[in-house]
Amino acid sequence: MSQPIASKLLELLGGAGNIAELENCMTRVRVQVKQEDLVNVEEIKKLSEVLTVMKDDTGFQIVVGPGAASRICDQMKELGIEVMEQQAEDHAVIHKHDAKGLFAFISKVFLPLIPVFAGAGLLFGLKQIFVGAYDVAGIEFFNPANVADGGSVFMGALNVLAGTFFTYLNIAVAMSACKNLGGNPYLGLVGGGIVISVGALEGAATGIPGVVFQSGRGGVMAAFAAGALMAIVEKWVKKRTPDSLAIHVPSLVSIIVVGLLTLFVLQPVFGFVLDLITGSLMWLFENAGPLGGAALSFSWLFLVMLGIHHGFTPINTALIQSVGYTPLYPFGSLAGGGQVGASLALMVKYRSNKNLVSAVKGGLPAGILGIGEPLIYGVSLPLGRIFPLACLGGAVGGAVMGFFTQGSVAVNVSGILGVLVNISPLVYFAGYAISVVAGFVLVYFVGAKQSALDTFEGHDLDSH
């Protein structure tokens, strides 16, 4: 292209002066603008790297796929938008007290952590493979016991590398929540640190009947709330503090107020909430496994399409912290499996439609690795009924997997890689394979409407 896509996007968004906020997630460039009438959505959709554009109360979401989102966002900032990030305190994350605003906030807090979730999760997967090699072949290099008990130094080091992020996850979440509300992230560190360890208070009575101080109580939800409150209190105090005391007083008051609230309110309340959620979900998976699995897998792509799937990250993380794994997360991976199968069927059934085949080939690698947006926006959604058929394919796999005990020990490791982090790898692999096959069969025999296929026939992918 004669003009870089970042430059074109900036122009079609009304120029650098029209950008109020700019960020990216794994597959989307998220933009808030000052004047929406300056944005040319239709021309943005025509750009070769753009899969689709969505508009909601939080702004525009430009779907460009994995890798490209970060690259394009960075390029746009280099063109003169870097100052927008410095205005975080003046731009509230939650503009309205509604579900979209809450989901947007949750998404912003967890998005920076997703790559680390994925990397650390894959290390957990490798550790599982090595432990399996030790159990089967007795290879001492992979002995997972403590080094003092004769275990491998290599495995001890690997355990440190894989586990450190999850050990300090509550601190990371609290810092991110505080930063996203315009507060000092290191105050968030204090809130998250209190959740991780209550120190000498461990086991002492809180004054609440039946409740004692407990390190980790309330988990990621308590840390999330503590970080957000740190920002709110700090900003409130700053506005009412004279300049001569501005260095000391806001932090002092924030630590005292939010620290005590964390110990005596947030940890007990969110501890109770997490116990309730964990117990309810585990009961659901144990008693309504196949039906619950099918429903979760069928609905997951709809959540991804709306961009609210990250709202489940705190629940999945809390489950991992509570029981060691989350049985919820893998069902979303099977939804992606259904879409992979559906896309393969399209490529086989309509192989003469070169543009459709090119679209499938472009999104398939990401889909196999668990990133669904390229296939959603580039293939299944434009073809109408193919999208729900892909969801049904995932539901078939979800129903089968629901008969068995399984769960992921890490989040954001999905698709075929999910087999590495599942406590029942064979169960997960079977469920994923069934989803792919079901998606393929459903789409191959039902097919797409000719009118939908014509949109690909008449669209030259290289014309932009």
From TrEMBL:
Pfam family, one: PTS_EIIC
Residue ranges annotated for the PTS EIIB type-1 domain, each copy included: 3-86
Lineage top rank: taxon: Bacteria
TM region(s), chain numbering: 109-133, 153-174, 186-205, 211-233, 245-270, 290-308, 328-350, 362-379, 386-406, 426-446
Active site residues according to the UniProt entry: 25
Gene Ontology terms describing biological process: phosphoenolpyruvate-dependent sugar phosphotransferase system
Subcellular location: Cell membrane
Membrane disposition: Multi-pass membrane protein
GO cellular component assignments: plasma membrane
PROSITE patterns per record: PTS_EIIB_TYPE_1, PTS_EIIB_TYPE_1_CYS, PTS_EIIC_TYPE_1
Domain called PTS EIIC type-1: residue spans: 97-460
UniProt keyword list: Cell membrane, Kinase, Membrane, Phosphotransferase system, Sugar transport, Transferase, Transmembrane, Transmembrane helix, Transport
GO MF: kinase activity; protein-N(PI)-phosphohistidine-sugar phosphotransferase activity; protein-phosphocysteine-N-acetylmuramate phosphotransferase system transporter activity
CDD domains cross-referenced by the UniProt entry: PTS_IIB_glc
Record-given protein name: PTS sugar transporter subunit IIC
The species this protein was found in: Enorma massiliensis
